[in-house]
Design brief:
Number of helices: 5
Oligomer: single chain
Order of helices and strands: EEHHEHEEEEHEHE
Strand content: 25-35%
Helix content: 25-40%
Length: 176
C-alpha cells in the first residue's frame, strides 16, 4: 500500500518557539519509498536543462543531492556563513523568527549556469531569495525553486514570484 507523502511529515508543536508548528521532513527521509517518490515528483516538475542544483543547508542537502543526481546536474551547497572553506560570497536574510546569513563559494557557479534552488520547506521565502541573490551575483540564471513543503500563509511563493522565480512545492500545510 502506498503511503501519502504528507502523512510522512511529522509536526512538532512549539518549535523553535511557542506558536510555531514545525513541519519536520526527517521522518519522510527515513522512509525509502517516500524519499524516492519525493525526488521523482520534484524532478518531474523541472522543465529544461539544469546545470546545478543549489541546496540550502541543512535539510535541503538531502533533497538537493538526490535531485541533482536525478537531473544529471552538479550540486551547489548554500550554507550558513562561516561553514565553507575558501573564498565565499554571502547574503543576509530574514527568517520568520529572526535573521541569518547564507554563503556559497565564490567560484561555485559559472556565469550563465542554469541553477535550480532546492530546500525542504518554503515559509517566508527569505532563505530562497538570499540563495537567488548569491547565484545571480555569481552570474547564474535561476531555473526555478523546488520545495517539499510550502506554508502558503507565510507568503514565500508570492515573494519568489515577485522576484521572478517560479516556486513549486509538493505539499502544503495551511495555517502555519
Amino acid at each position: 500500500m502506498t503511503v501519502d507523502l504528507k502523512s510522512l511529515v511529522r509536526t512538532i508543536p512549539d518549535f523553535p518557539r511557542p506558536g510555531i508548528q514545525f513541519r519536520d521532513i526527517t521522518t519522510l527521509l527515513l522512509d525509502s519509498s517516500g524519499l524516492a517518490r519525493t525526488i521523482v515528483a520534484l524532478a518531474e516538475t523541472v522543465e529544461g536543462p539544469v546545470d546545478l542544483v543549489a541546496a540550502i543547508e541543512a535539510r535541503g542537502f538531502a533533497i538537493g543531492g538526490a535531485l541533482a543526481v536525478r537531473l544529471g546536474a552538479g550540486l551547489l551547497l548554500i550554507r550558513k556563513d562561516g561553514k565553507l572553506p575558501g573564498a565565499t560570497i554571502a547574503e543576509d536574510y530574514a527568517l520568520e523568527y529572526g535573521s541569518d546569513r547564507l554563503a556559497m563559494h565564490v567560484d561555485a557557479c559559472a556565469p550563465g549556469a542554469r541553477v535550480l534552488i532546492v530546500d525542504d520547506l518554503l515559509a517566508t521565502g527569505g532563505t530562497a531569495l538570499a540563495a537567488a541573490r548569491l547565484i545571480r551575483r555569481a552570474g547564474g540564471e535561476i531555473a526555478g525553486a523546488r520545495f517539499v513543503i510550502d506554508l502558503p500563509d507565510l507568503g514565500g511563493a508570492r515573494a519568489l514570484a515577485e522576484a521572478g522565480i517560479e516556486a513549486v512545492s509538493l505539499l502544503e500545510f495551511a495555517g502555519d
